[in-house]
Write a structure and sequence with these properties.
The chain is α/β, with parallel strands linked by helices. It folds into 2 domains: 275 residues, 3-Layer(aba) Sandwich (Rossmann fold); 192 residues, Rossmann fold (3-Layer(aba) Sandwich). The protein is built from 15 helices and 16 strands. The strands form 2 sheets. Strands 1, 2, 3, 4, 5, 6, 7, 9, 10, 11, 12, 13, 15 and 16 form a 14-stranded mixed sheet that branches. The chain has a two-stranded antiparallel ribbon with strand order 8-14. Helix 1 crosses helix 13, helix 10 packs across helix 11 and helix 10 packs parallel to helix 12. The protein starts with 26 loop residues before the first strand and ends with a helix.
């Protein structure tokens, strides 16, 4: 399994005028709105595209399924997102989620999907007030799966008094295919999913004041490939001014973004597999979404799955690694971290001793290390099972140690707060603090599959104080650029030599030196 190839079930944006505060209108009525997702007293808010009507539920008002761009269908497939014309003379119902973006078949429990999928959802504290800080969630799922609707941020909204926006973006080959014919049309190809995220951030900047948000106080955050996308936005010149802070959860696994030539070579091969021998955009667009999904590859294996961004010269002008080293990135506070046992999710639990060397050989090759060295640092005799040894190597190489690199590079310019999530108190059972295990400590999560679906309210008693502390850390960071707040264990910057340990019952400071020794970062980060 290659770095960035994360499992489906887990892992795992332009109108220039903004809405004047004088347009802020909020209408309440006593009638109930019936919806497949939420119902409650209606709330109507104006946007640059037209008014939207959401619904109040307890302490939160939700506006669901708001289109932020034209549907990327027909001639707009594999083009940069286009502004939506709006519905100025009518009020659009916003009480049900829009379709999720097309993703590989096989899970019949997923909601309906469609290429018409560029929708976002706004969750605001109720009653609505002005000046709220804003958090924009970029979901994970290997950039081939997932949807904003899988994550209900109500626990964050109620714990921190912030507005949270979740969004969909194009996935797989529909979102990340690079091909010369597509580049000739628009001067760029391969980063449609990232462009969608930027279009959504433009929508937030132009409209969030109407929902009570401060457009100058936006924090973007994401997990796994969503965290990787957050890092891409941090280094993208086209995202400058669209957000102020960033949170990256388990997203530092791919710092060497592929160059355009490599991605387009793969794109030409993909066109051939689709039956487009002429390599034309017309032929590519003649194929159904089903045909494209069926031939785009799988993140489970070693073949290209078209879920990776590309150095296209516009959205991304250099790799993440080079941008961070050279200082060419958005200068805002960063909160990032990993989970203690990230690799456990990616290694078969029954890995045999005979297969252990071959498994580590792949990690060695993809990290430019001799396999003998990796085996020396992770001898089978050190671990209870081969799976535990392989999981340790995977988590160290692809998550823990890259986090330390970023903390050092970025921390030389701006405040960086580093963490390791390591709750073994029961909330992460049965797999422990593996990749994605922290999500249900922050959100109400659905459609990721057991053991990751769930809610902070359903965590065991011993894990709930940690969950509340994490929600307050995350929202405090969005509020003030620091996770610290009244009643919370102090969290010092990474520059101080700390890594905050997110453990039950309450977090505590940890030593970065001890962290790096435990994860053997002197080896993985050595050049």
């Amino acid at each position: 399994m290659q770095p960035g190839r994360l499992p489906r079930q887990l892992d795992g944006v332009v109108r220039k005028r903004f809405l004047s505060a004088t347009l802020f209108v909020l209408v309440f009525a006593t009638a109930l709105i019936q919806s497949s997702c939420y119902s409650g007293p209606p709330a109507v808010v104006p946007t640059t595209h037209g008014p939207v009507q959401g619904a109040v539920s307890g302490e939160v008002v939700r506006f669901l399924g708001i289109p932020y761009a034209l549907p990327p269908v027909g001639p707009l497939r594999w083009r940069l997102p286009q502004p939506h014309p709006g519905w100025q003379k009518t009020t659009r119902s916003a009480t049900a989620f829009g379709p999720i973006c097309p993703q590989p078949a096989g899970d019949t429990t997923l909601p309906p999907s469609s290429e018409d999928c560029l929708y976002l959802n706004v969750y605001a504290p109720f009653p609505m007030q002005t000046g709220r800080k804003v958090m924009v969630w970029i979901h994970g799922g290997t950039n081939t799966n997932g949807a904003g609707s899988f994550y209900d941020p109500t626990p964050l909204v109620t714990a921190g008094g912030v507005i949270v926006v979740t969004l969909n973006y194009r996935l797989g080959a529909l979102g990340f295919l690079a091909h010369p014919a597509l580049r000739i049309e628009s001067g760029s190809s391969g980063n449609y999913g990232l462009a969608d995220q930027q279009q959504a951030m433009h929508w937030v900047r132009n409209n969030i004041a109407a929902f009570g948000g401060d457009r100058n106080e936006v924090t973007i955050f994401g997990e796994s490939s969503g965290g990787m996308n957050v890092l891409s936005q941090v280094v993208s010149p086209l995202a400058r001014g669209l957000f102020r802070r960033a949170i990256v959860e388990s997203g530092a696994f791919l710092l060497d973004t592929p160059p355009l030539a490599e991605s387009e070579r793969q794109g030409r091969e993909f066109a051939q597999t689709l039956g487009c021998a002429d390599q034309s955009a017309v032929c590519l667009r003649s194929k159904t979404a089903y045909e494209i999904l069926a031939r785009q590859g799988s993140p489970y294996g070693n073949e290209v799955a078209y879920e990776l961004a590309t150095i296209d010269g516009k959205i991304l002008t250099m790799s993440q690694r080079d941008a961070f080293i050279s200082g060419n990135f958005h200068r805002g506070p960063l909160l990032l971290g990993n989970n203690a046992d990230e690799g456990r999710l990616f290694v078969p639990p029954g890995l045999s001793a005979a297969d252990y060397p071959k498994t580590l050989e792949h990690y060695a090759q993809s990290n430019n290390r001799p396999v003998a060295d990796v085996l020396r640092h992770y001898p089978l005799s050190k671990f209870a099972t081969p799976s535990e040894g392989a999981a340790a190597a995977y988590g160290d190489a692809y998550f823990a140690c890259p986090d330390r690199l970023i903390a050092g590079w970025v921390g030389a310019h701006v405040p960086v707060y580093a963490y390791e999530f390591n709750d073994n108190a029961g909330g992460t059972a049965p797999m422990g603090p593996t990749h994605g295990a922290e999500l249900r400590y922050l959100f109400n999560v659905t459609n990721l599959g057991p053991p990751f679906d769930g809610s902070p309210s359903a965590l065991p008693a011993e894990s709930k104080p940690l969950s509340l502390a994490m929600r307050r850390y995350w929202t405090s960071f969005a509020q003030r650029g620091t996770p610290n707040g009244a009643g919370l264990p102090v969290w010092r910057t990474a520059k101080s030599g700390d890594v905050q340990m997110l453990v039950a019952r309450l977090p505590r400071p940890g030593s970065a030196k001890e962290f790096e020794e435990r994860h053997i970062c002197s080896y993985w980060n050595g050049r």
